[in-house]
Design a protein that fits this description.
- The structure holds two protein chains of two kinds.
- Chain A contains 14 helices and no strands.
- By secondary structure, chain A is mainly α.
- Chain A has one domain.
- Chain A is globular, with a radius of gyration of 19 Å.
- Chain A starts with a helix and ends with a helix.
- In chain B, α6 links the parallel β7 and β8.
- Chain B has a domain of 119 residues: Rossmann fold.
- Chain B is of the alpha/beta class.
- Chain B has nine helices and ten strands.
- The longest helix of chain B has 14 residues.
- Chain B is globular.
- Chain B has a six-stranded mixed β-sheet, with helices on both faces.
- Classes of the chains: A mainly alpha, B alpha/beta.
- Chains A and B meet through α1 and α6 of A and α2 and α3 of B.
Amino acid sequence: MNGFMAVFKRELKGYFATPVAYVFLVIFLLVAGYLPFKDGFFELRQADLRLFFYNMPFILVVMVSAVAMRLWAEERKNGSIELLLTLPITIRQAVLGKFFAAWTFLAIALVLTFPLPVTVAYLGDPDAGQLVVGYLGCFLMAGSFLAIGMFFSALTKNQVISLILSGVACGILIFAGHPSSLNYVSSTISPAAASVFETLSFQNHFDSMMRGVVEVKDVVYFGILIAAWVVACGLILEERKAS
Amino acid sequence: MIDVQQLRRSFGPVVAVDGISFTADKGDVLGFLGPNGAGKSTAMKMLACFLTPDGGTAKICGHDILIDPVGVRQCLGYLAENAPAYNEMTVAGFLNFVCDARQIKGAKRRAALDKIVPMCSIESVYHQTIETLSKGYRRRVGLAQALIHDPQVLILDEPTDGLDPNQKHEVRQLINEMAKDKCIIISTHILEEVEQVCNRTVIIARGKILTDSTPKQLTDEHGCSLNEVFRKITTTKK
């Protein structure tokens, strides 16, 4: 797995070699820190991070798509994919290396929101388990968006197209589980269809983790989602790496 | 060391490489000539296992490109057209990444870098980012990347394209120095280059090999310069 480590190291360093990482971190932390207070963090008088987690899916759709869009599109555009894939590295190692490097970067971004849990712990007596599970949910969701974004990045040379496609795909997966969409589906198609939508959507699985409940089915949902999109990305690259 | 058998590849309706076969051994510097779009780059990409052939196969150092692409890449140095690299990295960072990927570690890495950096004359830009380099330096960094593991087989796609006359001369010298214990394939449009560095010429057009000979034999046979031979062969045999 040395090819994996080489790619992983290069990618992760790459974020901090360019302004990408810093711009991303600053904006992410600003938005993620501001929204809970805007939504009434103090007025709620509850020692938890529900408001912080509540906004996470929307922030992550935009931010993760932005991180993921360059993963392969850039590589294709400037031709370095030909260099990468003629080194003794398999496509699987390259895909996993890039994916885990980006996921690690997103984990760093999430860890840097630590002032919020610290604030909550200072002001009250939060349930530590709930916070940890909430963060785990954010991490898994970021990974899922990343896998989707990476897939679309492998489809095209154009980063803008990749950003829009992955933003829309992730958006659909979130909004499919929102009450308004579910009501619409159950009234126009059938209630059974609505429950299918609900289980396929991110929202439902993330909601329970946000409340501090870890269920095997939620973790498996994210796991399968990530694995499937990453495998699909590998297949797409194998098929059209040179085009 | 290189054994190509009936390699074919088409892109949609266009047949880029149409069943080429040749072999090359240690000590060979094989010049791959042909008009634009003849299939030179496609053939080289297939040998470097970047493109998969539609038919046929090739063996490099005993590794089959279809069965063991990673084995092929391990014993192969490949410089793609335009010398792609990671623009935001420094030359040092880039070469270290290539060492990582090729699993050249510790003292071996230091030795490899100490040898390759002066050899490609990139000491002066060693700590610069690649995007700030001129075309000539970029290409030399690409060459350094291809040579760092001292491969037995080298495939260079237009290695002197865009270099100034002095740099061209240097690269040719470099190739001549390495020629005796490696097997090298270079593609080029510059026919003087072929006369200077190659001991074999393969002329290819529309995906087919037209001649496989030596530069000397070609000029003797046709009684004219290599330029004219090239024109004769690639324009008459339609």
